[in-house]
Amino acid sequence: xxxxxxxxxxxxxxxxxxxxxxxxxxxxxxxxxxxxxxxxxxxxxxxxxxxxxxxxxxxxxxxxxxxxxxxxxxxxxxxxxxxxxxxxxxxxxxxxxxxxxxxxxxxxxxxxxxxxxxxxxxxxxxxxxxxxxxxxxxxxxxxxxxxxxxxxxxxxxxxxxxxxxxxxxxxxxxxxxxxxxxxxxxxxxxxxxxxxxxxxxxxxxxxxxxxxxxxxxxxxxxxxxxxxxxxxxxxxxxxxxxxxxxxxxxxxxxxxxxxxxxxxxxxxxxxxxxxxxxxxxxxxxxxxxxxxxxxxxxxxxxxxxxxxxxxxxxxxxxxxxxxxxxxxxxxxxxxxxxxxxxxxxxxxxxxxxxxxxx
Length: 358
Fold this sequence. Notes:
7-stranded mixed sheet, about 30% helix, alpha/beta, 6-stranded parallel sheet
């Protein structure tokens, strides 16, 4: 089968090969025919080494498809079922799951250390234990979440990561209050989803911040009341909040510099939500006095900060009701053979989300 492979960390191009095999099928596993996958910035971060990932590997973790085969003991899905790939399944038994913090379950990460693909010359890992830049993937049954028949594969793929992360940051983690002021720094697919979440909650002012003009323009169509470049954020803070700062600021870039800017843009007693996934050696500096004196809440948001399965269901319900726009997030489409074009679209910021059709 075909799959896009990164041979070494640090390379900026993927090689599409046709001699890859999905392996590991057996009890408790499912084989999925991938039909659509989104390109998330985390894929680029894994390729560059910002996020830890053994190589060689098949990127991709935001996918949807249909079940081809189920292993012994699998009862939740059967061949022919349409599913979204969940890269962080909950085991239901660990301390985090028992506390109701299923997004912090580490069981799924254990899969990332076992190759789930192979070529004639050796094994390949799948990013985050999945690897959806491939025609087929073998994963734990918990990674295959059934979706209704009326949800297209491309829409389902977005729900698998970016939309769930962004919406959840606003609805679960921040719990945005009606009438509040919001700034979102970084307006790709995840940031725009956070904007939609803030709009759903009734935020009065939503400022989209991004260096790319096309993304700023797009953000206005998803609910932002104003869109500015990073250089214009200070002026927006002064005009909209009289210099006090925003009630909620979402950092959706994953860098300490933008996180520091987000902190300074949050009002005293306000909430900074860290959504972007950054590097382990990139440190955010805060002094002990400002932490005490400003009483700002700093809330990291992992995969939307809530029960993933409930978040999927909520997103489908909101999409059906026309309360959120998911199709509009897909600004580009490419076949798997043109995956490197999709990478360039992500790097330059010309795409909110590129759908890779497989």
